[in-house]
Structure formats: structure tokens, C-alpha cells
Design brief:
Helix content is 22%, strand content 10%. It is of the alpha+beta class. Keywords: Hydrolase.
């Protein structure tokens, strides 16, 4: 975030159309500074650089807040197959959000 503020001061708002927008990245996409696990801890690693999509968001001023949960290896249908817990509905925790992008859905 400090880098975005500095870039805004130096380059102006037109250079950073997403300045300050907070984003969460699905945990099967690399974001530098955050481990990538794909909800499979045994295969977790620390990426040295971000995936192109994340790098482009950051270059436009977005700030990565963290990673979102998912079914292991993004292969599930309802968001309940993760060692990090089931992704519950944001408005009703009795419901699951569904899909391999369950954590991303709840983040929205």
C-alpha cells in the first residue's frame, strides 16, 4: 500500500487506475509474498513472483490483501474439501458457498 501511495504522488492517478483497490487471490494463483497451497499443504510453496494476472493488477495500483480458500486443487463442487475448513456462506453460515472458487465467492 505504501508503494501505491508513493507511485500516486510521483505519477498521478491516471497511471494507477486501480489505486488502493483491495483484492484477494484464489490460492491456486501465485501472489508474491503469500504461500500458494491450492488447499493441499503438502504441495505448498512460496512463489518468488506473482502470476501475470496478479502482477498486472498490482501494476495498476491494486493491493493484494490475501489468498482465498478453495476445494483441494480446485476440483470440488461445493467448497467443502479443504484442510483449512469449509467455506461457509457470508450471510448464512449454515450454507456452503459452493464451487471450487468458494472462498473467492464469499470474498465478493
Amino acid at each position: 500500500a505504501a508503494g501505491v501511495a508513493r507511485a500516486l504522488a510521483e505519477e498521478g492517478a491516471d497511471a494507477l487506475p486501480l489505486a488502493g483497490l483491495v483484492v484477494a487471490v484464489k490460492d491456486n494463483i501465485d501472489a508474491a509474498g503469500f504461500p500458494t497451497t491450492a488447499a493441499l499443504p503438502v504441495s505448498a510453496y512460496q512463489p518468488e513472483e506473482s502470476a501475470t494476472v496478479v502482477a498486472r493488477l498490482e501494476a495498476a495500483g491494486a493491493v493484494v490483501l490475501g489468498k482465498t480458500n478453495l476445494d483441494q486443487l480446485a476440483t470440488g463442487l461445493v467448497g467443502t474439501r479443504s484442510p483449512y475448513g469449509e467455506v461457509r456462506g457470508a450471510e448464512d453460515p449454515e450454507l456452503v458457498s459452493g464451487g471450487s472458487s468458494s472462498g473467492s465467492a464469499v470474498a465478493v
